[in-house]
Design goal:
heterodimer; A: mainly alpha; two-stranded antiparallel ribbon; 14 helices; 73% helix; B: 304 residues; mainly alpha; MetI-like fold; 2 domains
Chain lengths: 331, 304
């Protein structure tokens, strides 16, 4: 470097190395994020290895009992039964209930915010919906535990079970024994928690539908709703789907609120109105004081399942986003 | 209006026209179309109201159930106090563990955000953004499991530092995402002006770009703080909670407000449950206050 340039940059060659140093330290932070993900996989898989190696993936995922000291009721023989099926069913069922409630509701709210609401009302409502997302899950959990579960059991749980429950399997309740803590209650609590996410994503996607598309339709004499129904929502559907998938991922991994209302019974529920267990709630209630090595490996194996599913959902949403980007370039 | 189907080639008559498809089943019935429009307007308004109901119900019930036991003793006694137990240990625990977590996760996150926004090429930036997406999607309990299976098992045991690290894992991607987005908004002309003066790249970032973006960065960091403050799951098997006052000893278990609410709510004794509600007030007040302050200013820009 010639002297003039060196003088211009004031402290000569040292600055260059400071630049490299800073650049490298920021790169290290990014690599740390990558390492974190790799470490998460590696640690969980390594420490749950006995489950995968000794029992196999399929038996672990399909065994419907979780009992490290299982005593066969007929033969009296003891064996180790570590199965993830009750938790997988509980997680998926509760998340689907959350999604069935929060999905359409959230999209409707987004439609209202973007298409119908006066601007000031939209600002206020958006703010309130974002506040819901900010409530700590343990606070939603205690509300679910002492308020909502009782309200739900005494009102619409019975109503749903006696109408839809007669037609759709999995929705009937035990008439003699209505429970507060059930997969259904967990699903409703999840709905409260994920609705802000559905609203936020849908709102962004609906807002980004080009005005010219709406105008073209409205100009032909369509009403507001017809434009929404036939132009806005179809154009936005991939983005909305992506938001719904994100919300589903959030629901699958939600821990504390679900733990407080799902009932914590390691059984495959035959109805959503029965207590169950989710993957996250099983880990939350048991990992702290587990002593049995096989059971510990099983709990970490549940962690692997949760990690694979949530990473998989992120990848799917990414692919959807890529398709969405393509669609917008095309239009 | 009758259509001469015999003049149209086979099959074409059955196919709905573009107008049929776009205007739906009530095409031609003007009154019905207007009614449907009004009904859907009302339905979406109702949906907006329904979504707000849980917020009101949660805040309302927490206040109603928690206020009677939210006394001065509750705020100034540790939960191990046998005469009148309180939540001071939990409040102080959160106020210690969360800042330490923010120090770890926030500084790393800020650095990573700087790399992605300032240095990374397009492919690296896309890869980094995807990585952050994945990390944001990882359930927070797995942060707790990771720290439990490494730090807690092999090194520190149940301790406040393990809790802080678990919270830091949760905050890390949040801060990366927030700082990356904010830094990208800083106009390139500002960077160029600084570089044209002969100021080194790193100095440009530290003294020009970051200060310009400081309001946004602060927002992201505050939201990460609020998020960490409300997290229970990462602390379950790391910090674990403790009955006694723990100030400054990060090598032993420490209580935290969310943990206090969770653990007390499951106790059979009514007075403990009442305390869980009172602690929920404190928790909710802190977390919502941060969110209201931080989001209140910018919500208008996100709607328009």
């Amino acid at each position: 470097m010639d002297d003039r340039l060196r003088r211009l940059t004031r402290s000569g060659g040292r600055l260059l190395s400071a630049d490299a140093l800073f650049r490298r330290s920021t790169l290290v932070a990014v690599l740390a994020a990558g390492a974190l993900l790799v470490l998460l996989f590696a640690v969980l898989v390594a420490q749950s290895w006995p489950i995968w190696a000794d029992r196999g993936i399929v038996p672990f995922l399909t065994t419907p009992t979780w009992a490290p000291n299982y005593v066969d009721p007929v033969t009296g023989a003891t064996s180790v039964q570590i199965g993830a099926l009750p938790m997988i069913v509980g997680t998926v069922l509760s998340s689907i209930i959350g999604l069935v409630v929060a999905g359409p509701l959230g999209v409707l709210v987004a439609v209202f915010l973007v298409e119908y609401s006066p601007r000031r009302l939209a600002i206020g409502l958006t703010f309130l919906v974002e506040l819901i997302a900010a409530i700590p899950s343990v606070v939603i959990g205690i509300w679910g535990l002492y308020v909502f579960s009782i309200f739900s059991r005494d009102t619409f749980q019975w109503w749903i079970a006696s109408t839809i429950g007669r037609v759709i399997p999995f929705c009937a309740e035990d008439p003699a024994n209505p429970t507060r803590f059930s997969v259904f209650t967990a699903g409703m609590v999840l709905a409260v928690m994920i609705v802000p996410m559905v609203v936020a994503v849908s709102r962004e996607v609906i807002r980004s539908v080009p005005l010219s598309l709406r105008e073209g339709h409205t100009g032909m004499g369509a009403t507001r709703w017809e434009t929404i129904r036939h132009v806005v929502l179809p154009t936005a559907r991939i983005g909305i789907l992506g938001g719904v998938m994100l919300a589903f991922g959030r629901a699958l991994g939600e821990t504390i609120a679900v733990t407080m209302v799902i009932g914590n019974v390691d059984q495959v529920p035959t109805s959503v109105f029965q207590p169950g267990q989710s993957i996250a709630s099983k880990i939350a209630t048991n990992l702290g004081d587990v002593t049995d090595q096989v059971e510990l490996a099983g709990l970490l194996g549940l962690g692997v399942v949760l990690l694979v599913v949530s990473v998989g959902l992120s990848v799917i949403v990414r692919l959807l986003a890529r398709r969405l980007g393509g669609a917008y370039v095309a239009s | 209006m009758a259509v001469r189907t015999d003049l149209v080639p086979d099959g074409a008559a059955q196919r709905p026209s573009a107008a049929d498809r776009l205007l739906g089943p009530h095409r031609g019935n003007e009154r019905m179309r207007a009614v449907v429009d009004v009904v859907m307007r009302l339905v979406s308004l109702a949906a907006a109201i329904v979504v707000i109901v849980p917020l009101v119900a949660i805040v309302g019930y927490v206040l109603v159930k928690g206020l009677p036991t939210l006394t001065l003793e509750f705020l100034t006694h540790a939960s191990g106090n046998t005469e009148s137990p309180g939540a001071l240990n939990a409040i102080l625990g959160s106020l210690q563990m969360v800042p330490v977590a923010l120090l770890i996760g926030g500084s790393l996150g800020l650095l990573a955000g700087i790399y992605l926004a300032e240095y990374a090429g397009p492919r690296m930036a896309a890869g980094g953004t995807f990585l952050v997406d994945v990390l944001l999607g990882v359930p927070s309990i797995l942060a707790g499991v990771l720290v439990y299976a490494t730090l807690v098992t092999y090194w520190t045991g149940s301790s406040a530092i393990a809790g802080s690290v678990a919270l830091a894992v949760v905050m890390f991607p949040i801060v990366i995402r927030a700082s990356e987005e904010v830094l990208r908004l800083v106009p390139g002309s500002i960077r160029e002006a600084s570089l044209a003066l002969g100021i080194a790249r790193w100095r440009t970032v530290v003294s020009v770009v970051v200060p310009v973006a400081r309001a946004g960065l602060l927002t992201g960091i505050m939201l990460a703080f609020a998020r960490g403050f409300g997290e229970t799951a990462p602390l379950l098997f790391t910090a674990r909670g403790s009955e006694s006052l723990n100030v400054g000893d990060f090598s032993s278990p420490m209580a935290a407000l969310p943990l206090f609410v969770y653990q007390n709510s499951r106790l059979p004794d009514r007075t403990f449950v009442a305390q869980a509600w009172s602690a929920a007030i404190v928790l909710l007040a802190i977390v919502l206050a941060i969110n209201v302050i931080v989001r209140g200013r910018s919500v208008g820009s996100r709607v328009e």
